[in-house]
Fold each of these.
Amino acid sequence: MDDAFLRIFMGGDIFSDAGIDVIEKKLKNLRQKYSIDFVICNGENASGGNGLLEKDAIRIFKAGVDVITGGNHIFEKRDGYPFLATEKRVLRPQNYPSGVSILIEGEEETPGRGFDFFECNGKKIAVLNLQGREYMAASLDCPFRTAASCAKQAAESDALLFIDFHAESNEEKEALALFLDGKAVAVCGTHTHVQTADERILPKGTAYITDLGMSGVADSVIGSDAEIVIKRNLMQVLYKMENAVGETVIQGAIITVDKGKNCAISIERIQF
Ligand SMILES: [Fe+2]
Ligand SMILES: [Fe+2]
């Protein structure tokens, strides 16, 4: 592809071993087929369906992911906290309490950080991970204000800003994307594991999709075994969930960026 452009793949939540396996099997092909320069994938469900451990993050990086973003589930494996606190290529939502970069034992801080700068083909890339507040359990700082502050820093550094907005509410996702239109190259939603068909370039040049979907077992209930989830619904008890097995897919979107103008020129929804 022309040097004036970059192509970035943003992938939905990688769910359990099945999700990591499909990334290992197919991501290199996808990178090659679509001339992808940089890959950002959500990894909050990578370790057994919730949380992210170092060993699984290493597999994901080796498979060709450059930055792993997170969400509400990324904190569920406490053994992963020291890694989360120190690995630059793993982000968790920036609007969690404290925002400190190092976990200090005995203090109640959220490990990790949600905003950082990377480099791709001579161009600075800023990645921001945020979490929504509507229909989500955690009580977090305002994602809009956090985004505005990070967008300002990205602009001052002449960096292309990519945002994984991990949220349940479509309304909150669209509102944040339009709030940042022209300030971010892309605002892509994650968390629901269901890919939406509303990808578009917003009026001021930001690429948007409400949800990127999931990498994992296609024939499942958001990654989990369907039969068990049906039982949970019928019985209304906390029947233990199991991860699904079966055919796997990678879902996400490819964003083509004009490096000179710092804006997206296209967004293409992918199921691979
Ligand atoms: Fe998820
Ligand atoms: Fe989530």
Amino acid sequence: MLPIIAISLSSLTAPPPPPAHLQAEAIGKVENARIRASVEKLAGFGTRHTLSDTTSATRGIGAARNWLKAELESYAGSPARLTAAFEEFEAPKSTRLPDGARVVNVLATIPGKQKESADRRYYITAHYDSRNTDPMDAAGDAPGANDNASGSAVALECARVLSMLELDSTVVILLTAAEEQGLIGAHYHAAQAAARKDNILGVLNNDIVGDPTDPNVQGGQFFTVRVFSEGLPRNPSAAQIAGIRATSSESDSPSRQLARFVEFVGAQHENNLAQVGLVFRQDRFLRGGDHIAFNDNGFPAVRFSVFREHYDRQHVNVTTRDSLPYGDVPRYTDAAFMGRVARLNIATIINLANAPRPPANARIVNSELGNDTLLRWSPAPEPDVIGYEVVYRPTIDSTWNPEMVKDVGAATEVRLKINKDDHFFGIRAYDRHGYRSPVSFTGTAKE
Ligand SMILES: [Zn+2]
């Protein structure tokens, strides 16, 4: 049997708190008025249907993507801290692309500054295309203000603010097309990234984040953004399913740890961030969005979306009510709320990008029966890591409990007098600045 390092938990100095000051400064740079102006600008292209005009300078998806790329380029600075590009491909024929189509995503990359972390990529995504009542109507107006100029405008503002920071890991802002045709732009990007073996460790998909009101409550308004996350992977292997069953980890996928991490970060800030409402589904009931394309390619990804939707204003033709345009138009989006959503994205990305990656090979060593729990994990590769925390929760709890955290210092092994039958365990790494990684859920090993 291997010797077990006995450590006295009470003798350790506490790890540093998360660095709130730097984050507060960054999120303070968000300008609600810029987000509002971007929504107006995008809606002003009339339609951003994927099959709409690509040659006009003022109308259609071509004008919209040219503007998005130019806007991203305007944040680059000198020397350039950000690069913007189109990602173009020929999509094959499909139900909503009967002749196929040239689909163009817009992306911006902010390279990571720490050698050991620059391979890690964190995404903010939004689809910029739109539709009206008829998903095939490429000519009629489809302003798509809430769905999804709101997410695109939030992503733009995040790009502007994040490009001003020195972040350890690489950040990508991805604006996709043909989402309304079946997540086609996102699927292409995610499949290419998977083929390249890109190390994408977190995707925040912003889709319908503009309207905080409740259609059932007069004057009802929320500060909450729902955060959706998948539980089970798509097409798992028999071995994967066996592993999930053995450890009862059906609610502890990497995407769900990412969702809990968003809540963990949000709780460190008061007042001016959107509040996190975790929903343990991949998306709204039987519906979808671009994060699913990343999930399908094996990447942790979550969706941000408003607390309630107005189905009479979404995916519909613009009409007139009380002499005013009615439909998915900018007047039903709220700049202050979108600002909150942008700040939640930025705070989350700062923490993801500057924190260590989740510890690899986190496991419960299960060589003998006992009421103690022996945990091991691999040391983190980042040079600024100074310690690890074990988090745990009763199996019937849905999220990690801030009271159930054990600091173990620089050890990569610990035996706890907490029963593994009744609890789930996870490991996270922290660095000398106080940034904590998302949680690695523990698997199991006999060793
Ligand atoms: Zn959408």
Amino acid sequence: MPEKPKRNTLLYNIMFVAAGAGIILFLLAAPPETTVKLPHDDIHQKYHAMKKKQAEKFCEKCHNPQGEAPLPQGHPPKYRCLFCHKRS
Ligand code: HEC
Ligand code: HEC
């Protein structure tokens, strides 16, 4: 009976393609990036030139709850600032 296994293979192939298409559609539908970029001002200019990991050591000197520029309420997890606040 060669019929049955063949049908199964076709079914799995269809499922595989459908899952792939679903993932691509999901990624394409992601909202455009709107997170504010790292500013180009006197405070932040120097961090554009540094390595990301190096620069991020300084962010929380000011961006902490007691600092001069606390993060807004409901700010997402803040690990690695520059992955979200891109440099331009
Ligand atoms: C010396 C203090 C200081 C340091 C260090 C600092 N910031 Fe800031 N940051 C500020 C202040 C004050 C503001 C608000 C005024 C402004 O926009 O410049 C601000 C604003 C921002 C904003 C919002 C800009 C906007 O358009 O609303 C982002 C994003 C930001 N900082 C990210 C960072 C990141 C990422 C780092 C580390 C690489 C960093 N900051 C380091 C003081 C600092
Ligand atoms: C997971 C992504 C993510 C990470 C990591 C992250 N942020 Fe944010 N941040 C956001 C989002 C989203 C907002 C909401 C406002 C917006 O769209 O920019 C925000 C808002 C801010 C604001 C206020 C901007 C404004 O104009 O109101 C500052 C300042 C800021 N973040 C600084 C930082 C700093 C400093 C770090 C690292 C310690 C950090 N962020 C890490 C996503 C992130």
